[in-house]
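PROTOCOL LOG
Step 1. Enter all chains and additional molecules of the complex.
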Amino acid sequence: MADTQNADPVYVTDALITEDIDAYLMSHQHKTMLRFITCGSVDDGKSTLIGRLLYDSKMIFEDQLSALESDSRRLGTQGQEIDFALLVDGLAAEREQGITIDVAYRFFNTERRKFIVADCPGHEQYTRNMVTGASTADLAVILIDARKGVLAQTRRHSYLVHLLGIRHLVLAVNKMDLVGYSQEVFDTIVADYARFARTIGIEHFTALPISGFKGDNITALSPNTPWYKGPALVEHLENVEVDTSADRTGPLRMPVQWVNRPNLDFRGFAGLIASGSVRPGDAVRVLPSGKTSTVARIVTLDGDLDEAVAGQSITLTLNDEIDCSRGDVIAAADAPPEAADQFEAALVWLDDEALHVGRSYWLKLGSQTVSATIQQPKYEINVSTLEHLAAKTLDLNAIGVAEVTTDKPLLFEPYARSRTLGGFILIDKLTNRTVGAGMINFSLRRAQNVHWQALDVSRDQHAALKNQKPAVLWFTGLSGAGKSTIANLVEKKLHRMNRHTFLLDGDNVRHGLNKDLGFTEADRIENIRRVGEVAKLMADAGLIVLTAFISPFRAEREMVRAMLPESEFVEVFIDTPLAEAEARDVKGLYKKARSGQLKNFTGIDSPYEAPDNPEIRIDTTAMSPEAAASLIVDKLLGDA
Amino acid sequence: MTIPVPHPSLTHLQRLEAEAIHILREVVAEAERPVMLYSVGKDSAVMLHLARKAFFPAPPPFPLLHVDTTWKFRDMYALRDRMARESGMELLVYHNPEAAERGINPFEYGALHTDLWKTEGLKQALDKWQFDAAFGGARRDEEKSRAKERIFSFRTSSHGWDPKNQRPELWNLYNARKHKGESIRVFPISNWTELDVWQYIQLEGIPIVPLYFAAPRPTVERDGLLLMVDDERFPLKPGEQPVMRSIRFRTLGCYPLTGAVESKASTLSEVIQETLLTTTSERQGRAIDKDAGGAGMEVKKQQGYF
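Step 2. Run joint prediction.
Step 3. Record the structure below.
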């Protein structure tokens, strides 16, 4: 029996409380807080694990314990033993059904931390509750039944917590007592999970062999798993960095919640700091107006503060009379957030009534509320298989990616950078229900009123000096279609004609600017976004820019198109059928992809979305690269 | 030598305080007529203190509402009036006229006393002043069904709670939209534990009712509860004689329904010490949760109890 609770030092001993309560309180006062969620399939033992954590940290009182003991005999599933799950499964209805159907929040302490646990349900139809629990969590514990291994639910939940931006993932292989504490079983499950995790972009996770029922490796390492070197679950939870500490490194962002005007002499701006820190004297910019000022005071009931940091609720006053109201954002003057009215966002649908494409919903982000419409989803994600499915709408618990258009610009940041300025809810205007949750990937169109540094030499003057009309020739097509070859020929021709050009090539850019990016969908999108931004800057400088990237997703090509003045984006579709490109296989990549050595390869296990209406289409089965280059140059200069 | 950390992490109490203040401000920004339910207990004391912080230097821009049963401890009435004065807030006191007329009291009526004075009284008060958002000091660690309640908890126009139909609550984005007649109960200290509340009271020097501290008080023992004879309305049964005992209260309600514990803890540190070492949970001293078996509170909430 591995019941280790008594041997463990992480919990407060009654002795300290008895002997020196003030010393104990002093230590408790300096505890940090970690919020985490537990998720897994039905019967993986979530409630039992949480019940165990509460029990071991003495958060169960005697009367609760006696109720638990009598409930266990009456309703329990563990024979004569205490059924910890009964402690956690609160609502009468679900006690009868024997499953957890709503997020329940639980609390326990160790010597180092206070913990808030969101107990998330395992049933498929309750995705919305899991997303709710995950949205405020710093860490997720994914439970796996050691007898069952990685299940569809495991994949689903892992995908969701990753989507919700949880950076710390714990894989708890539970019920190890029922597989004889076998290292082999544990290793196999961890290897299975690691393979899956990589495909959805999870880079790190911590795997532990545990038994919630018996208490193995929960508060201390268990003698039943001598092959496991640690840490124990609680020790790991005590040491993980919490998000509010991480948020502190960014530039200041404070959504204004409320303007405090008790009298004519005081005007304070109240809000919760989303990122960064602020001190009196700091230069700040109020958005969307773009007006700047400096911080006069950070006002509290206990006197003014010298500094406030991410995670604190504060009231600021400024040194200048500036318009500022609820929904505005006070930001570092030199690093304000973007504003835009069109986004690509990942959406989770939370309501029985499906998404109505084109209907106007309330969108709430930070303290901003605007009207928003959702386009037809680009795709829905089958969370168990990660397939992208065509979708006309999103039903309850569906997850998809769609464009969102708002009636006025939103101050935002990509969700990956800021939960506060990247996460939003959608509210039905008739029923007032919260029907959807969204996470902004990127903006598709910049709003007009973002401040810009005024430059004296305009883009027109840059172009005029070069005696040419700037353009971005955006070559897209499968790997091996002939993009680089043809783009290279086009550039040579233009160069000979005294045109100022520059060729951005996919492979070359990945050696430098984008060498930190991989080939996951997110990285591919970021790859294209950066190339788009660079191409745009070069076009601003008056150049004719040629880009040769697979750029498989329509949305990103459209995003780049939206960055440029109309007619300057020329989409060149190098149309080579997959069979033809694969037969050529100039770099031997198709062979590698087919044999599984190369993941996420466009055309093989990652989609290519061909342009609907490219400015130029080149059928490489019908013309030579030379002929194609001439055609492109003629079209470009003919237009000019 | 340790490397100095320029920014120590926020403590759990700092994060809980920031969250509560954020919630208080959201309600004021989005609701039409908010009110704070003030029961004079330690949780109400913390909630009121947080409200003063949230809106400083302005006074909290909503009234305090005390749904009174006329059977609270005398010390509670005294602190209530003092705190309303000090915070600069309007104090509304509501007595259910029907309960008053029928002379409902905890000695003769038991559960009906709570139902009429508190549950019905609260509904009537909210309807009377047309409040659309009411702050309450409930915490999720108090009771199983509270553990699953949202921070913004919706009530139908008849004040019912539907645990199966709660709005999802993501990040710190609260949907405060509702139809006319519907209302929201808002729990800014949902995520606090009993220990957090005590510690915050100590750190912030928040005034609380002296009954939380041990002192010699006249008591009788009845049905397993140790009751305090707070005024002359306490009917003594034949053979009962008030006995002076050193007692204190872990929770405060109507004095004839609230059990005391024998204690010598007369300072905050000692009270916290006793709380940490104690093995009976907080609401055990109250008769109310024992009604209706294991699901008592859940049933009461569906009927409109706070």
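Step 4. Note key features.
The first helix of chain A runs from residue 14 to 19.
The radius of gyration of chain A is 28 Å.
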